[in-house]
């Protein structure tokens, strides 16, 4: 039997997105965001939900652009740091020892050390209450060649992204391969 635990912000998996922006003065900044995911296939879009008082929220509205860098397991400490300190008070790139890379396509930086990045232009926002959902059209996805599979796609085992557990407030690595998507279910037919 299932037991009610109330209305909570718990869903699995929950990503660890590192959102990159420039502030009004052109200083690069990053923040960790777990409330997000793919929101449209055509055009390709990703959504993130941020509180209005966040520095990153202001930056996105100012520049109408952001990046989403996907950190690997080796950078869990740097990713966590980017979510617990405000860019108003610290240069998070410098303090975390990360390199800001200027996107050639949108007015935002990404993290050079992280293996994958989505470059996005802001196309829509929706006020949801405590958070505002920001939808960005994915202009390009850049991936380190070292983590590509033979077909030129990111290999999750090489990217080594990690997940956030909102219930336990912890990070977890990706688990083992289970089955081929859009295929294993055919066995039920």
Description of the structure:
There is one protein chain. The chain has one domain: Electron Transport, Fmn-binding Protein, Chain A (Pnp Oxidase, Chain A, Roll), CATH 2.30.110. The strands form three sheets. The protein has a seven-stranded antiparallel beta sheet. Strands 6-7 form a two-stranded antiparallel ribbon. It has helices spanning 55-63, 76-84, 92-96, 156-159, and strands at residues 17-22, 28-33, 36-40, 45-51, 65-70, 100-102, 109-111, 116-127, 131-143, 162-165, 170-173. It starts with 16 loop residues before the first strand and ends in a 16-residue tail after the last strand. With 189 residues, the protein is mainly β. The model has no long low-confidence stretch (mean pLDDT 96). The chain has four helices and eleven strands; from the N terminus they run ββββαβααββββαββ. A hairpin with a 4-residue loop joins strand 10 (162-165) and strand 11 (170-173).
Proportion in β-strands: 35-45%
State the separation between the terminal residues, measured CA to CA: 28 Å
Q: Report the total helices.
A: 4
What is the fold named in CATH at topology level?
Answer: Pnp Oxidase, Chain A
The side-by-side strand order for the widest beta sheet comes to 2-1-5-8-9-4-3
Average pLDDT works out at 96
Count of discrete domains: 1
Tell me, what is the CATH class? Mainly Beta
| Assigned CATH architecture | Roll
As a whole number of angstroms, the C-alpha radius of gyration is: 17 Å
Q: The biggest beta sheet, please?
A: 7 strands, antiparallel
Fourth CATH level, the homologous superfamily: Electron Transport, Fmn-binding Protein, Chain A
Structural class: mainly beta
Unreliable stretches: none
What is the helix content? 10-25%
**Overall morphology:** globular
Taken in chain order, the helices and strands follow as: EEEEHEHHEEEEHEE
Total strands? 11
């Amino acid at each position: 039997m299932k037991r009610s635990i109330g209305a909570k912000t718990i869903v699995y998996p929950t990503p660890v997105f590192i959102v990159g922006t420039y502030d009004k003065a052109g200083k690069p900044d990053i923040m960790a965001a777990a409330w997000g995911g793919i929101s449209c296939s055509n055009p390709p879009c990703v959504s993130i939900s941020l509180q209005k008082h966040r520095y990153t929220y202001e930056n996105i509205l100012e520049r109408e652009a952001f990046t989403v860098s996907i950190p690997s397991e080796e950078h869990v400490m740097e990713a966590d740091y980017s979510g617990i300190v405000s860019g108003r008070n610290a240069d998070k790139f410098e303090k975390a020892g990360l390199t800001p890379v200027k996107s050639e396509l949108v007015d935002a930086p990404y993290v050079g050390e992280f293996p994958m990045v989505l470059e996005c232009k802001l196309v829509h926002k929706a006020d949801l209450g405590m958070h505002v959902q920001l939808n960005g059209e994915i202009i390009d996805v850049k991936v380190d060649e070292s983590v590509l599979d033979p077909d030129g796609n990111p290999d999750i085992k090489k990217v080594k992204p990690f997940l956030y557990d909102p219930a336990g407030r912890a990070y977890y690595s990706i688990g083992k391969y289970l089955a081929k998507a859009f295929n294993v279910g055919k066995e039920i037919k």
